[in-house]
Design goal:
The complex is a heterodimer. Chain A is mainly β. Chain A contains no helices and 11 strands. In chain A, strands 2, 4, 5, 6, 9, 10 and 11 form a 7-stranded mixed β-sheet that branches. Chain B is an all-beta fold. The chains are: A mainly beta, B mainly beta.
Chain lengths: 116, 111
Protein backbone atom coordinates (compact mmCIF):
# COMPACT_ATOMS: atom_id res chain seq x y z
CA UNK A 1 0.00 0.00 0.00
CA UNK A 2 1.06 3.55 -0.69
CA UNK A 3 2.04 5.43 2.42
CA UNK A 4 1.99 9.22 2.50
CA UNK A 5 3.16 10.57 5.84
CA UNK A 6 2.76 14.13 7.04
CA UNK A 7 5.04 15.16 9.86
CA UNK A 8 2.40 16.62 12.20
CA UNK A 9 -1.33 16.04 12.71
CA UNK A 10 -1.78 19.28 14.64
CA UNK A 11 0.35 22.42 14.66
CA UNK A 12 -0.10 25.81 16.33
CA UNK A 13 2.03 28.74 15.21
CA UNK A 14 2.03 32.50 15.62
CA UNK A 15 1.42 35.20 13.04
CA UNK A 16 4.62 36.09 11.19
CA UNK A 17 6.40 32.81 11.89
CA UNK A 18 7.95 30.78 9.09
CA UNK A 19 6.21 27.39 9.07
CA UNK A 20 7.38 24.15 7.48
CA UNK A 21 5.03 21.27 6.68
CA UNK A 22 6.71 18.05 5.64
CA UNK A 23 5.41 15.19 3.52
CA UNK A 24 7.09 11.89 2.69
CA UNK A 25 5.87 9.13 0.37
CA UNK A 26 7.28 5.63 0.09
CA UNK A 27 6.16 4.55 -3.38
CA UNK A 28 8.66 6.32 -5.61
CA UNK A 29 5.95 8.57 -7.03
CA UNK A 30 7.02 11.34 -9.40
CA UNK A 31 4.09 13.65 -8.64
CA UNK A 32 3.45 15.29 -5.30
CA UNK A 33 0.78 17.85 -4.37
CA UNK A 34 -0.11 20.21 -1.54
CA UNK A 35 -3.75 21.17 -0.90
CA UNK A 36 -5.61 23.08 1.73
CA UNK A 37 -9.10 21.99 2.73
CA UNK A 38 -11.61 24.49 4.11
CA UNK A 39 -15.32 23.97 4.91
CA UNK A 40 -17.51 24.69 1.92
CA UNK A 41 -14.53 25.16 -0.41
CA UNK A 42 -13.20 21.63 -0.79
CA UNK A 43 -9.60 20.87 -1.62
CA UNK A 44 -7.69 23.64 -3.34
CA UNK A 45 -4.30 23.04 -4.94
CA UNK A 46 -1.48 25.21 -3.60
CA UNK A 47 1.59 23.79 -5.38
CA UNK A 48 2.61 20.59 -7.06
CA UNK A 49 5.82 18.95 -8.24
CA UNK A 50 6.33 16.47 -11.06
CA UNK A 51 10.01 15.73 -10.43
CA UNK A 52 12.85 16.50 -8.06
CA UNK A 53 13.54 20.26 -7.92
CA UNK A 54 10.57 20.92 -10.22
CA UNK A 55 7.56 22.84 -8.92
CA UNK A 56 4.48 24.44 -10.38
CA UNK A 57 1.95 26.85 -8.88
CA UNK A 58 -1.53 25.60 -8.25
CA UNK A 59 -4.65 27.71 -7.83
CA UNK A 60 -3.75 29.48 -4.56
CA UNK A 61 0.06 29.78 -4.27
CA UNK A 62 0.18 33.24 -2.67
CA UNK A 63 1.94 33.22 0.70
CA UNK A 64 3.38 29.73 0.17
CA UNK A 65 6.48 28.16 -1.33
CA UNK A 66 7.63 24.56 -1.72
CA UNK A 67 10.80 22.52 -1.83
CA UNK A 68 11.50 19.15 -3.39
CA UNK A 69 15.14 18.21 -2.94
CA UNK A 70 14.51 14.46 -2.86
CA UNK A 71 11.94 12.43 -4.74
CA UNK A 72 10.20 11.13 -1.63
CA UNK A 73 9.89 14.45 0.22
CA UNK A 74 7.83 17.54 -0.57
CA UNK A 75 7.82 20.46 1.84
CA UNK A 76 5.31 23.30 2.07
CA UNK A 77 6.59 26.59 3.51
CA UNK A 78 4.50 29.43 4.86
CA UNK A 79 6.92 32.33 4.53
CA UNK A 80 5.21 34.55 7.10
CA UNK A 81 2.17 32.85 8.59
CA UNK A 82 -1.10 34.77 8.73
CA UNK A 83 -4.41 33.93 10.41
CA UNK A 84 -6.10 33.31 7.04
CA UNK A 85 -3.73 30.38 6.54
CA UNK A 86 -5.39 28.49 9.40
CA UNK A 87 -6.62 25.36 7.63
CA UNK A 88 -6.26 21.61 7.08
CA UNK A 89 -3.30 20.90 4.80
CA UNK A 90 -3.25 17.69 2.78
CA UNK A 91 -0.33 16.21 0.87
CA UNK A 92 -0.81 13.71 -1.97
CA UNK A 93 1.36 11.74 -4.37
CA UNK A 94 0.79 9.84 -7.61
CA UNK A 95 2.45 8.24 -10.55
CA UNK A 96 2.42 10.27 -13.75
CA UNK A 97 -0.66 9.90 -15.92
CA UNK A 98 0.35 7.46 -18.65
CA UNK A 99 -1.91 6.06 -21.33
CA UNK A 100 -5.38 5.34 -20.07
CA UNK A 101 -4.43 4.42 -16.53
CA UNK A 102 -6.20 6.27 -13.79
CA UNK A 103 -3.22 6.76 -11.44
CA UNK A 104 -5.17 8.09 -8.44
CA UNK A 105 -3.62 10.51 -6.00
CA UNK A 106 -2.90 9.03 -2.57
CA UNK A 107 -3.32 11.31 0.41
CA UNK A 108 -1.72 11.75 3.80
CA UNK A 109 -3.83 12.18 6.95
CA UNK A 110 -3.43 15.95 6.91
CA UNK A 111 -2.00 18.61 9.20
CA UNK A 112 -4.47 20.85 11.02
CA UNK A 113 -2.61 24.15 11.27
CA UNK A 114 -3.77 26.99 13.50
CA UNK A 115 -2.19 30.43 13.22
CA UNK A 116 -2.76 32.60 16.27
CA UNK B 1 -13.67 28.78 -15.48
CA UNK B 2 -13.70 25.60 -13.43
CA UNK B 3 -16.82 24.61 -11.54
CA UNK B 4 -17.73 21.35 -9.85
CA UNK B 5 -21.03 21.14 -7.99
CA UNK B 6 -22.29 18.52 -5.60
CA UNK B 7 -24.86 18.66 -2.79
CA UNK B 8 -23.51 19.79 0.56
CA UNK B 9 -25.28 17.24 2.74
CA UNK B 10 -27.40 14.11 2.36
CA UNK B 11 -28.98 11.70 4.80
CA UNK B 12 -30.02 8.10 4.23
CA UNK B 13 -31.13 5.03 6.12
CA UNK B 14 -29.03 1.96 6.82
CA UNK B 15 -29.66 -0.69 4.14
CA UNK B 16 -30.99 1.80 1.61
CA UNK B 17 -29.52 3.12 -1.66
CA UNK B 18 -28.23 6.66 -2.10
CA UNK B 19 -27.12 8.54 -5.20
CA UNK B 20 -24.70 11.47 -4.93
CA UNK B 21 -24.64 13.70 -7.98
CA UNK B 22 -21.79 15.77 -9.38
CA UNK B 23 -21.95 18.23 -12.26
CA UNK B 24 -18.87 19.84 -13.74
CA UNK B 25 -17.85 22.59 -16.10
CA UNK B 26 -14.12 22.53 -16.66
CA UNK B 27 -11.84 23.78 -19.42
CA UNK B 28 -10.39 20.28 -19.88
CA UNK B 29 -11.37 16.74 -18.92
CA UNK B 30 -9.30 13.60 -18.53
CA UNK B 31 -11.35 11.52 -16.17
CA UNK B 32 -13.45 11.85 -13.03
CA UNK B 33 -12.60 10.47 -9.61
CA UNK B 34 -14.65 9.82 -6.48
CA UNK B 35 -12.97 9.81 -3.09
CA UNK B 36 -14.32 8.97 0.37
CA UNK B 37 -13.16 10.95 3.38
CA UNK B 38 -14.06 10.05 6.96
CA UNK B 39 -13.86 12.88 9.47
CA UNK B 40 -10.25 13.58 10.44
CA UNK B 41 -8.86 11.10 7.93
CA UNK B 42 -7.23 11.10 4.50
CA UNK B 43 -9.38 10.97 1.36
CA UNK B 44 -9.27 7.46 -0.11
CA UNK B 45 -9.81 6.58 -3.77
CA UNK B 46 -13.17 4.96 -4.60
CA UNK B 47 -13.70 5.01 -8.36
CA UNK B 48 -12.64 6.40 -11.69
CA UNK B 49 -14.57 7.05 -14.92
CA UNK B 50 -13.14 8.32 -18.17
CA UNK B 51 -15.63 6.85 -20.65
CA UNK B 52 -19.40 7.23 -20.55
CA UNK B 53 -21.24 4.59 -18.61
CA UNK B 54 -21.35 2.76 -15.33
CA UNK B 55 -18.41 1.34 -13.40
CA UNK B 56 -19.36 -1.11 -10.65
CA UNK B 57 -17.19 -2.03 -7.71
CA UNK B 58 -18.97 -4.02 -5.03
CA UNK B 59 -21.57 -1.90 -3.23
CA UNK B 60 -20.33 1.25 -5.01
CA UNK B 61 -20.98 2.25 -8.62
CA UNK B 62 -20.09 5.41 -10.50
CA UNK B 63 -21.63 6.76 -13.68
CA UNK B 64 -20.35 9.33 -16.16
CA UNK B 65 -21.95 11.29 -19.00
CA UNK B 66 -19.31 13.50 -20.62
CA UNK B 67 -21.79 15.24 -22.94
CA UNK B 68 -23.86 16.34 -19.93
CA UNK B 69 -20.91 17.06 -17.62
CA UNK B 70 -22.49 14.77 -15.06
CA UNK B 71 -21.52 11.94 -12.79
CA UNK B 72 -23.07 10.14 -9.87
CA UNK B 73 -21.86 7.81 -7.15
CA UNK B 74 -24.34 5.11 -6.15
CA UNK B 75 -24.00 3.44 -2.77
CA UNK B 76 -26.09 0.31 -2.17
CA UNK B 77 -26.90 -1.57 1.05
CA UNK B 78 -25.80 1.39 3.10
CA UNK B 79 -23.89 0.72 6.30
CA UNK B 80 -23.24 3.05 9.20
CA UNK B 81 -19.54 3.11 8.26
CA UNK B 82 -20.50 4.77 4.95
CA UNK B 83 -21.14 7.99 6.88
CA UNK B 84 -18.41 10.19 5.41
CA UNK B 85 -17.78 12.97 2.91
CA UNK B 86 -17.68 12.02 -0.76
CA UNK B 87 -15.48 14.14 -3.01
CA UNK B 88 -15.94 14.46 -6.76
CA UNK B 89 -12.79 15.47 -8.69
CA UNK B 90 -12.07 16.09 -12.37
CA UNK B 91 -8.60 15.49 -13.78
CA UNK B 92 -7.58 18.36 -16.05
CA UNK B 93 -5.85 18.09 -19.40
CA UNK B 94 -2.49 19.51 -18.29
CA UNK B 95 -0.80 16.10 -18.30
CA UNK B 96 0.34 16.57 -14.68
CA UNK B 97 -2.42 14.40 -13.16
CA UNK B 98 -3.89 17.49 -11.49
CA UNK B 99 -7.34 17.22 -9.92
CA UNK B 100 -10.02 19.86 -9.46
CA UNK B 101 -12.23 19.02 -6.49
CA UNK B 102 -15.81 19.80 -5.66
CA UNK B 103 -16.62 20.93 -2.13
CA UNK B 104 -17.72 17.43 -1.12
CA UNK B 105 -21.00 15.86 0.00
CA UNK B 106 -21.36 14.92 3.66
CA UNK B 107 -23.45 11.75 3.94
CA UNK B 108 -25.04 10.74 7.22
CA UNK B 109 -26.37 7.19 7.47
CA UNK B 110 -28.82 6.60 10.30
CA UNK B 111 -30.34 3.38 11.67
Amino acid sequence: DVKVTQSSRYLVKRTGEKVFLECVQDMDHENMFWYRQDPGLGLRLIYFSYDVKMKEKGDIPEGYSVSREKKERFSLILESASTNQTSMYLCASSLPRTGGRHQPQHFGDGTRLSIL
Amino acid sequence: GQNIDQPTEMTATEGAIVQINCTYQTSGFNGLFWYQQHAGEAPTFLSYNVLDGLEEKGRFSSFLSRSKGYSYLLLKELQMKDSASYLCAVRDSSGYNKLIFGAGTRLAVHP
